[in-house]
Amino acid sequence: MKTMLITDFKSQEFQTNKMSIIDFHTHAFADALAPRAIAKLSQSANARAYHDGTVTGLLSSMDHAGIDCSLILSIATRPEQFEPILRWSEQIRSKRILPLASVHPDDPQALAHIRQVAEAGLPGIKLHPYYQNFRLDEGRMLPLYEVIQDCGLLLICHTGFDQAFPRDRRAEPKRIMRVLDQLPKLKFVATHLGAWCDWEEMRRHMLGRPIWMDLAFALEFMDATTSRALLMEHPAEYLLFGTDSPWADQTEAVGQLRRLGLARELEDMILGGNAARLLNIH
Questions:
Q1: Which H or E run includes 149?
Q2: Sign of dihedral through CA atoms 163, 229, 274, 15?
Q3: Other Cβ atoms within 10 Å of 96 Cβ, number
Q4: On the CB side of 52, how many CA atoms lie within 13 Å of its CA?
């Protein structure tokens, strides 16, 4: 069976231009699961949800914010969740919704499942070191990363701390760099501006290097001067707009970026141009 590379990914008829906005980091759940998931996650992370956690709720939020397309990042917290997540992702995929699949590191079929994601034409895999209980650079993860790389898939990984967990340094910048030094062709996206609430370490080890970072749930935790300086110091083509919706207000996130006073070309690249290039959307 032919392995489908990211360059084969069919984004249906979605077209972009420099003014299009792509949210590279959102979450949603199947309608039946959403109420329970939102209630549980809101409590564990002490976080407010800005919509009901459904795809319909996300689309309504996107409409209000002027966002053209969102990536939905699911997380398999148990190995047996791979198939349901994959099936649901295939069902909800559309011009405006690009879902990523997820595999669990404890899944004995993880490598085959990664290839299955590529064959299904989804753009990548989401991993989360806290919810899936691994350290980003531990040896058992390297075979998974290698297959993700060989398939041409994106790897979007939670990086930095997580407010629902103790501050165990399982996804810190030094671990990220150990992985990328071994697998320089891996299409790795570090979420939350490289490392949530560990931005000094991000600055020390990652800033200025050709590493994709999304901005989800990051700018609101620092002042505008710091945010602007970090974005100006990183390669412009490696910055991706993201919100972490429903845990952030997409409308406010767009406004927050625009209020930084970045050059229009850089702002357009962050809001959608870089994502379109990475996803091979023309």
A1: helix 142-150
A2: positive
A3: 18
A4: 12
Q: Is 102 helix (H, G, I), strand (E, B) or coil?
A: coil
Beta-ladder partners of 101: 125
The pLDDT tens digits for 162-174 are 998 999 999 999 9
The pTM of the whole model exceeds 0.70: yes
Q: How many residues does the chain have?
A: 282
Read off φ and ψ for residue 242, nearest 5 degrees: -155, 155
Q: Are 75 and 131 in contact (CB under 8 A)?
A: yes
**Backbone torsions φ then ψ of 219, nearest 5 degrees:** -60, -30
CB 178 within 8 A of CB 211: no
DSSP string, 117-139: HHHHT--EEEE-TTTTT--TT-G
Q: Which CATH superfamily is domain 6-10+18-279 in?
A: Metal-dependent hydrolases (3.20.20.140)
Distance CA 124, CA 154 (A): 4
The residues, any chain, with a CB within 8 Å of residue 195's CB and separated by 6 or more, are 159, 160, 161, 171, 172, 173, 176, 201, 202, 206
Domain borders along the chain are 6-10+18-279
Cα distance between residue 23 and residue 68, in whole Å: 8
Helix (H/G/I), strand (E/B), else coil: 235: coil
Tokens of 67: 């966002």
Between CA 149 and CA 143 the distance in angstroms is 10
Q: pLDDT by residue (tens digit) across 84-113?
A: 999 999 999 999 999 999 999 999 999 999
Q: Do the beta carbons of residue 240 and residue 189 sit within 8 Å?
A: yes
